[in-house]
Amino acid sequence: MTRTALVVRGGWDGHHPVEATELFLPFLRDSGFDVTIEEDPQVYADADRMAATDLVLQSVTMSQASNEAVKGLREAVAAGTGLAGWHGGIADSFRASSDYLQLVGGQFATHPSKHPDEVHGDQTDNYLEYTVEITDLGRRHEITAGIEDFRLTTEQYWVLHDDLIDVLATTTHPVQPYHPWHRPITSPAVWTRDWGQGRVFVSTPGHSLDVLQDANVRTIIERGILWAAR
């Protein structure tokens, strides 16, 4: 049976929402999804459209969504529509909406930078080498089973989150003399969330196209998409 996937993309161009989502369209179609694309989250307010959607793949960094759109998305997920995404496209969307933040369960706070002497004023100021560590739950979960801890050089997300998420992988921000915190901070890097009859999947790695094409990141996202879908 063909399932329906709605790709919603837009927001800040620095995360390449069009090119990034295009990477996964062949996978969606090969996995049996009928795919449609929207450039505006207002589609979430269309109750009939959302009820017929088995998966929302969202890549909308920052931007805004109306109260009606957020309400529609929450209701659709609670009724069984899956929600999946990566990086700022899902974990830094619609900052002004507390209802959206509650739905996703984690919100980007910052990505620590390099040593001040190594800062040049561009995106690479925040590219750090760090480890994505699979949790005990992650080693058993179908999204991350068989994947070992792996290294990336990209933005390392510091995430504010709640206890309703199931954390499949973490990353730890070390103490540096040029940062103001005093002990290491561990953030979720990959998580899932059950919401009513629906499922939410988030991967914080995914800042740029090369990261999305990393074998581990791509595998996790593809599995997460399938896990989240109705």
What does this protein look like?
It holds the Pfam family ThuA. It is built from nine helices and eleven strands. The chain has helices spanning 17-22, 25-30, 47-51, 67-78, 88-91, 98-104, 136-140, 209-212, 215-228; strands spanning 3-11, 33-38, 55-61, 82-86, 106-110, 127-134, 150-155, 158-161, 166-173, 185-195, 198-203. The strands form two sheets. The protein has a nine-stranded mixed beta sheet with strand order 2-1-3-4-11-10-9-6-7. Strands 5-8 form a two-stranded antiparallel sheet. The chain starts with a strand and ends with a helix.
Helix-residue proportion: 25-40%
* Overall 3D shape: globular
Q: Please, what is the average pLDDT?
A: 98
The total strand number stands at: 11
Order of helices and strands: EHHEHEHEHHEEHEEEEEHH
